[in-house]
Amino acid sequence: MHDSFRDEYLNSLExxxxxxxxxxxxxxxxxxxxxxxxxxxxxxxxxxxxLAGFGGESRSGVKARxxxxxxxHMQSNGLNTLRMPLGNITNLGPALxxxxxxxxxxxxxxxxxxxxxxxxxxxxxHSAYTDIAKLHGPSYISAAIRLWSSLLHxxxxxxxxxxxxxxxAHPSAIIGMARGYLExxxxxxxxxxxxxxxxxxxxxSGTSVAGLALGEALGRAAGDPPVxxxxxxxxxxxxxxxxxxxxxxxxxxxxxxxxxxPKCEVVAWPKHTIYGRFTKAHExxxxxxxxxxxxxxxxxxxxxxWDVMEHSALNGQISxxxxxxxxxxxxxxxxxxxxEELRV
Length: 344
Description:
alpha/beta, Rossmann fold, three-stranded parallel beta sheet, 12 helices, 14% strand, globular
């Protein structure tokens, strides 16, 4: 990040320290910012985090951004054990284990049956780390109890560990994603002469959208025009209730730096909020987007965000002067193999 750009957005020593480059680089940054011509939306910007070269088939850029932040936090605080739940739809597990191993971080995963799948299928999905994790039921509450019990045991044994919600959801990971927003803003100004009017992305844990909202809040405080951050909810849990908790947690994490309270919009359509499930219509969107624009998205996340973006254009909810941006978070490479079990 250029010094002049950093000074523009990060106007305190505490913020500059928090947003400094992580000692570990997991992705190829900056990822491309492209422009396509959509028949209904006109110009659409696409942030290609799927080209960051991380995760399953090297297509999971947002995970790299978040893990860079979390690993930096762990190294700075002498934490050497990570405990986290993990669902069945993931391209994070093997890459997480590999990178953590390089840093001497001991990872313990609690494998939650979400979305529900047959045991043999789950064993295949998690085969790379079933030696250090067990397959459990679908309850994240039970997973939280198990993890906090393990965390308490670590404390009694003076073991330096951290327990985080899925994704991972932690302020350091949110800051890692906010770096991505500032990266995009710099590129959009240089390449296209201004910022997008709205950003659309699929959201399950809320970490990625919280990071974009934090970056947008910093940009707005520095004089940038507001950018709508639109989270397309792909889980049944109420993202509107969880996001303020993430925002408040991050504000406390950044103290004594003072930041404006981030804000975003949540779109929760029933056809999109059955986690891990998708319909033939979602698959059709994937095929059309690949044919028309050369973008490979999946029906679990990407197709749902794309669907909301297109409907926003039809309903006149997208600015005609500033193009929308589709944040290509990555790709779930196993979706075709699981299609018959995941299709609604």
